[in-house]
Design goal:
With 185 residues, the protein is α+β, with helices and mostly antiparallel strands. It has helices at residues 3-13, 81-89, 149-162; strands at 23-27, 33-38, 42-44, 53-59, 66-72, 101-105, 108-119, 122-132, 137-145, 164-165. Helices cover 18% and strands 36% of the residues.
């Protein structure tokens, strides 16, 4: 039994309950989304928009877990979300070799994945969902130590459930026809 499970079992035997996580509303500086984030979590919102993309990450005070939101607002006129998602999520550059599964996230087309990895002698779990709003691609990813899985899965689920894309500042790009290759769906 992993050590995190032992601690949970002991707490349940003695009727010790974790206090509920308090959340605060977060709206990104570009106005493209809002979500609930646990109180006390640090936010790295040093937004540098590079080629229509930017990332914001959130971490608890211990810094062991992370929830990241990546936005791509530079979508070509003809766009295949399936090809884009598979390319981004299953490429060696993604750093995690795991297949993705077609899904739906808040009624939008999505791809999801779950994974496990080792870092610094510690086991971690993680996951992600990438979805397409019709104008932008959002990628939500999360990871945490296996020993905190029960608590962190609940927190990550609440964060995902609260996620709301907004019609904020979109980075538009005009591409003259035929100038670059387009993804033909």
């Amino acid at each position: 039994m992993p050590s995190g499970d032992i601690v949970s079992w002991i707490k349940s035997c003695f009727g010790i309950r974790e206090k509920p996580t308090q959340f605060r509303k977060f709206t990104d500086g570009m106005g493209n989304f809002e979500m609930l984030v646990p109180e006390g979590w640090k936010c790295d919102e040093d937004i540098a928009v590079v080629e229509g993309k930017y990332t914001i990450s959130f971490q608890p005070p211990n810094g062991l877990s992370q929830f990241t939101v990546s936005i791509d607002a530079q979508i070509p006129e003809k766009f295949s979300f399936q090809k884009y998602a598979k390319s981004e999520l299953e490429s060696p550059a993604s750093g995690i070799f795991t297949p993705v599964t077609k899904s739906v996230f808040h009624k939008m087309p999505a791809f999801v994945r779950e994974y496990r990895y080792q870092s610094g002698g510690r086991a971690f779990f993680g996951g992600g969902v990438m979805f397409f709003t019709g104008r932008m691609v959002f990628s939500l990813t999360w990871s945490a130590p296996e020993s905190h899985k029960k608590t962190m899965e609940r927190i990550f689920a609440d964060m995902k459930k609260s996620f709301l894309p907004r019609p904020g500042f979109l980075i538009h790009r005009t591409i003259p026809p035929g100038l670059i290759g387009r993804d033909e769906a």
